[in-house]
Amino acid sequence: MKKIIILITFLTFALLLTAEENLRHGLGFTGGMISGSGFSYRQMNDTYGFQFALGAITLGDGDDIEFDEIGFWEEDTLSTYSIEEEGIFYYTNFGASYYKFLHKGEKSLFYFLVGTAAYINFGSIEEQTYGYNQDTQLWETLGKPTEEKEMTIRTNIGIGIGIDYKLTENIHINLDWPFVYSRGENDFDLIMYIPQAGIHYYFK
Question: What's the pTM?
Answer without folding.
Answer: 0.72
